[in-house]
Amino acid sequence: MDATFTAEQDEIRRTLRELLLKRCGPDEVRTAVRTADGYDPALWATLAQQLGLPGLALPEAYGGVGCGTMEIALTAEELGRALAPSPLLATAVLSAPLVLALGSRSQRAALLPRIATGELTAALAVPGAGLTTALGLTGDNRGDWAGGGRSGGVQARRADGVWRLYGEADQVLDGHSADLLVVAAHTGGFARSRTLFFLVREGATRVRRTSLDETRSQSRIQLRDVAAEFLGDTTGGSADVGADVSGALAALAAVGDSAAAVLAAEAVGAADRVLERTVEYVKQREQFGRAIGSFQAVKHRLADLYVQVQAARSAAYYAAWASAEGRERTGGLALAQSLEALRTTASEAVQLHGGIGFTWEHEAHLYFKRAAGDELLFGPVHRLRAYAAEEARLFGGGEVAV
């Protein structure tokens, strides 16, 4: 792995940081999350149309830039520093790669160019609260998370050549505002159980949920006899579309690994920014006639945080590089380390800011809520590590494998 960034990668970081410093401060974030969309449409238009962020990792043939996971991870790191709410994660990191991997030629041609320009936003809807399992981060995504058997989860039925969906999906990131839903649904009943993916453009009932982290909008999607389009190639005319279920779930797991690397970088950006703000504050706040940052105990705590954030950054960058190169999947481990770093750093920030640290007016609570919310949504940390250890076969018969 070459740890040196290219000129293009440095330019992505510099341009995005300058833009967010001007247009996405704490006050702007608070205003944006209270809008109907949950983000600033004007800022999103700038990010999409002028900077081309949704198309960073899409092929040039579909209007994208043709970059990889590393570039979008660096983008996420800058967005994480500002806690900038946007549909980038739901659209470009979770949904677009599935359309690219599983969609038919006509579906890719119709959807991906519009996603690349920001004209079309999308969201991945999985049944219940199984997002982290569906992405293969805390368990095998070949299980019954999509609603095994004859009921539960989201069910798909085909009648008169039309697929219709029934059920409910929870914890759908930006699902209330997305133009397109990519829905994982169970079909085939008990005898021929399988999970397929469908595109839903209208007809679903969407309810924006109250979440701990307002900067990460979540929704509940209810599907009641909703018409859907199968995500895949049906030109063969076979009635048994989606027979290669293992391929679809493998694609979802691959998306999960790259998404974990991107989320890890985002968490590193948030941890780095809240640490910077804390260091600035302890240099100014005085006790006993001197800045509290001069006390040895405070220095030690900040030094520990710095080491933890830098270690998490290294893990996130390696995971993004490995994902782009098709090497071993380390996204889950990097995400665990980054979430832990963000949680610890945000907690210490609240403590070291003293009486103002836990007030509603200060921004420290926004970072603390991002840490807690992401661990609830994509973790917890111990499960991410446990599944990574299981996949790597580190433990056998109660002993560490040598």
TrEMBL record:
Signal peptide: none annotated. Residues 6-119 form the Acyl-CoA dehydrogenase/oxidase N-terminal domain. Residues 261-385 form the Acyl-CoA dehydrogenase/oxidase C-terminal domain. Its cofactor is FAD. Keywords: FAD, Flavoprotein, Oxidoreductase. One of its GO terms (molecular function) is acyl-CoA dehydrogenase activity. It comes from the Bacteria. Belongs to the acyl-CoA dehydrogenase family. This is Acyl-CoA dehydrogenase. It comes from Streptomyces aurantiacus.
